[in-house]
Amino acid sequence: MPEFVMYEDAFRRIDEELRRLYQLSNAKLVFLVDKNGQLIASVGETRNIDTTALASLTAGNIAATGGIAKLLGQKEFSILFHEGERDNIHISLVANRVILVVVFDQRSSLGLVRLRVKRSSQVLEQVFQEMDRMKPEEKTTKELSPFADITDEDIEKLFG
């Protein structure tokens, strides 16, 4: 899976959608991970959770389940659900490139989470499709950081 560059506008839209999903599904935690296990964004109760490890393990879960799917002659399983004593996890692939994870407890239900995830997945997929459709010149002219237009000459003048 090739890496992608996310600009501020796309990140803002993703973050807004994750916040909306968090509220409407009454979740404890919602996060988005790339297939390599890198956390893209998270919303919710992250205080006592190692989100880096959770993101990595979630990507590993998707990879392992992909192997099971292939053994069974399936392309992949796009939705996974794990039920625990206190918390449940709903995991889904979005645009075949990122993983959307919703952690919820008894304050919510699987039905509600699935309904809300379906809508949010459509919104997130649209954001990623728009990122893919950007023309090469748009990708290179957008600034990646506030320091993008600083030249070596500027640095020399400052420290020279």
Task: Describe the 3D structure.
With 160 residues, this protein is of the alpha+beta class. It has a single domain, classed as Dynein light chain 2a, cytoplasmic (Beta-Lactamase, 2-Layer Sandwich). It has 5 helices and 5 strands. The chain has helices spanning 8-24, 51-71, 110-133, 136-141, 152-159, and strands at residues 29-34, 39-44, 79-83, 88-94, 98-104. A 5-stranded antiparallel beta sheet has the order 2-1-5-4-3, with helices on both faces. α1 runs antiparallel to α3. The chain is globular. It starts with 7 loop residues before the first helix and ends with a helix. The mean pLDDT is 86.
Secondary structure: elements and pairs:
Elements: H1 8-24, E1 29-34, E2 39-44, H2 51-71, E3 79-83, E4 88-94, E5 98-104, H3 110-133, H4 136-141, H5 152-159
Antiparallel strand pairs: 1-2, 1-5, 3-4, 4-5
Helix pairs in contact: 1-3
Q: Give me the CATH architecture, please.
A: 2-Layer Sandwich
Task: Report strand %.
Answer: 15-25%
The string of secondary-structure elements, in order, is: HEEHEEEHHH
- State the CATH class: Alpha Beta
What is the global morphology? globular
Low-confidence runs of at least 5 consecutive residues: none
CATH topology description: Beta-Lactamase
Give the number of DSSP strands.
5
Q: Considering DSSP H and I runs of 4 or more, what fraction of the residues is helical?
A: 40-55%
CATH superfamily: Dynein light chain 2a, cytoplasmic
Our count of helices gives 5
Radius of gyration, in angstroms, nearest whole number:
19 Å
Task: Give a short account of the largest sheet.
Answer: 5 strands, antiparallel
N- to C-terminal distance: 43 Å
Record the strand order, biggest sheet.
2-1-5-4-3
Number of separate domains: 1
Give the overall pLDDT as a whole number. Answer: 86
Main structural class: alpha+beta
